[in-house]
Amino acid sequence: xxxxxxxxxxxxxxxxxxxxxxxxxxxxxxxxxxxxxxxxxxxxxxxxxxxxxxxxxxxxxxxxxxxxxxxxxxxxxxxxxxxxxxxxxxxxxxxxxxxxxxxxxxxxxxxxxxxxxxxxxxxxxxxxxxxxxxxxxxxxxxxxxxxxxxxxxxxxxxxxx
Length: 161
Known about the structure:
The protein is mainly α. It contains 6 helices and no strands. The model has no long low-confidence stretch (mean pLDDT 80). It starts with a helix and ends with a helix. It is flat and about 100 Å long. The longest helix is centred in the N-terminal third of the chain and has 46 residues, at 29-74. It has helices spanning 2-17, 29-74, 76-81, 94-97, 108-127, 152-157.
């Protein structure tokens, strides 16, 4: 009964993940037994092949190590005469390379910095490629604002012109 439940669960997962319709096929038992026999005949050949590949790999690794050891002995003077590698670009101690703490900004300076960082982020977002969607969503159409025609009194009292 457990094998049946596992089979149903696997089938349900396949159906759920499939993009198109899933078809049910019945394979005759004679064909299945034929391929089982073929697999049993090939089992010894495949295991011998895998064993040979493993041995070949071990031989390649042993040859690489042998060549490396021979080169180390042959070129020992040249290798040890090279200067030691330095990973820091300069001789400045690591404590000085740490970033300095940000000073607390107040008032207008803080607002200006905040606005500049927003502009930077916005520019980065606009240059970033948009996400590709499988289903293209239509953007809602914006309603056009209806312009009111100014009346005689509004024209006379308008102070913005």
